[in-house]
Every structure is written in C-alpha cells, then in structure tokens.
Amino acid sequence: DAGITQSPRHKVTETGTPVTLRCHQTENHRYMYWYRQDPGHGLRLIHYSYGVKDTDKGEVSDGYSVSRSKTEDFLLTLESATSSQTSVYFCAISESAAGHGYTFGSGTRLTVV
Amino acid sequence: SQQGEEDPQALSIQEGENATMNCSYKTSINNLQWYRQNSGRGLVHLILIRSNEREKHSGRLRVTLDTSKKSSSLLITASRAADTASYFCATVSLGGTASKLTFGTGTRLQVTL
Description:
The complex is a heterodimer of chains A (113) and B (113).
Chain A: E1 4-7, E2 10-13, E3 19-25, E4 31-38, E5 42-51, E6 54-57, E7 64-70, E8 73-78, E9 87-94, E10 103-104, E11 108-112
Parallel strand pairs in A: 2-11
Antiparallel strand pairs in A: 1-3, 3-8, 4-5, 4-9, 5-6, 7-8, 9-10, 9-11
Chain B: E1 5-7, E2 10-14, E3 19-24, E4 31-37, E5 43-50, E6 55-58, E7 61-66, E8 71-76, E9 85-93, E10 100-103, E11 107-112
Parallel strand pairs in B: 2-11
Antiparallel strand pairs in B: 1-3, 3-8, 4-5, 4-9, 6-7, 7-8, 9-10, 9-11
C-alpha cells in the first residue's frame, strides 16, 4: 500500500531464533500498530506506538517486543520464535488517535518450523 | 478478545445482487469502521461511522449503526465480481495512550458472474 511497506514479505525461521519484522512509513503519521491475523481470530493487536520511543502493549503481546527510534520505522521482534507465532503480521498507521481509518501494509507471512 | 462478531461468516451472491453483512460489538465505541481484504493482501479502509451517526453512504456502500443494539450493517449494492473479498468491522474505543482498532472475525463474500 502506498506510504507503508513491510519487510520481509515472507520468512521461514526455526523455533527458538529471534526474528525482526520491519514496518516503514512515508506518511509521517504518529500512530503505528502491529497486528497478527490467524484463521478464526481476525486481526489481533500485538503492540502499538503513539510516538517516537512511545510504545504500549496490545492484547497478544507476550513473546513480542517493539521499538520505534524514528517516526518512519516500527520494528517488531519475536525474541525466541515459537510455532504458535506462525501467522501473517500486518503493520498499520494512523494520523490521529481516533476518527481516521488506518492504512495497512501488505503483510509479512511468517512460518516458524 | 474479539469486540466485533460478523454475520454471516460467508456469503455467496450473484453479480448485481445486494450484499448485507452485520456486525455486533460489546462495549461502547467512539466510531466503527469497515475494511475489505482481498486474498493475500492487506486491509483497505472502506468507511467510518461515528457513534453519533446512524447512517453513512459512500458510493455503493451504505453503513448503518445502532448503538442501542451495539450493531452495524454494511450493504453493498449492485455487487460486482471485484467485490469478492473478506469484510471486517472494527471498533474504536477511546482511552489510554491511543485509540485501538478491535476487529471482528470477518465475512467472506463471494460474488459470482
């Protein structure tokens, strides 16, 4: 999607290894979010950021950490990947705390074997 | 936990027919949004309706909101094959450091020629 890119698009990793997913935006939006999408669960919020170095947990944050050192980049790290973290991960951005739709990236398909 | 539940889970119609999807949610909201997701892609924002609005239109889309029943519906008129996708409702409740979208599990719409 225009203005937001995720990398990598696909990744296969082994159980126990650390993995970092990157979200990059060119919209200068303050708010950034990481979601995971699994069959039967819709999208669930992992972590979000409300400014540089300002982050907070979502509903499924265990096993994940995030960092935001610049407005444009929001990194999601799986500290020690497990098979239950096999999922599709989406980053989203928003220009306001409420009242605007989110713009989503194209997703990263992560497989933990 | 899911805030929104969509109904039906899957819907198959012919081109030219109308498609109606329903969403129910549990807590008070600031606004409700609808998103479309094509297979293998990210989510695209369709429309936002605020808690003090009852109906909103955008092209072939009509959204209604009934806060007393905690429910919303999305109507797509004169459907096209290109409307084939999954549709998600998402609610926004204010509070904390940022608004957060909470998604339902989605409705899969299939439009056949």
